[in-house]
Prior knowledge:
alpha+beta
Amino acid sequence: MAASGAAVTVTVTYSNEKHNIQVASQQEDGEPTLQDMALLIEQVTGVPVPFQKLICKGKSLKELEQPLSALGVKNGCKVMLIGKRNSPEEEAELKKLKDLEKSVEQIANKLDEVNKELTGIQKGFLAKDLQAEALKQLDKRIKGTAEQFMKILEQIDAILLPLYVSKRLLGRIYF
């Protein structure tokens, strides 16, 4: 077994390619997990984690949160990858979707700020004579944010993704 925190070196075989990778834990003082290895394999091969089937010593590796040592993966092990890379067109669409996800997060942060300001007004942190103007400004910002959300929804609607990618990724966007 690998010592706690020690990196594990494995050879990943994918199609006609062989990749020697060194898997280290993403957690401080932790053992490398199957998730750590799968993410590294995605970077090296281009096969997204959900589309990876990893096999080591004749066993399918499925439990992403498990340490590699618990799955019998040690230094020098050979891991076979079965999976499908995304096409360049799919990658371009996925990048658009990730960019939109970032935009949604930024808008959500703006809404949090508006909510904090509204809470401050409700708690009486603003003089009564200034509240009406502040509420008008908040209303204007909320309407602008709603408009930004609508534009993002239109952009998401225009993205063309295969059904299997759509189901996997669209579930991650929180509105």
